[in-house]
Fold:
Amino acid sequence: MGTIGGIPAVLLNQSSQLYIDVIILLVKIIEGIPDFRSCNVPLLLQEAEKIEKEITKIKTQDTESEMNAYG
Structure:
C-alpha cells in the first residue's frame, strides 16, 4: 500500500470533481531502481492513435452538427 502523488494525484482529484474520465498507469516499483520495461510502449502508442482518431471523428461530427444547426 502507498499513496499516489504528483501529477497522477492531481489528475485523479480534478477528474473526480469535474466528472471527467481519466486513466493513469500505476506500476509496482522498487525504490531507487527504475524499471524501464514496466510499460508496453508499442501498445500505448497504438492506443494513443486510436484515441486521436476517435477525437478527430468527434470533432468532425461536432463541426458538421454546428453547420447543420446554422445552415
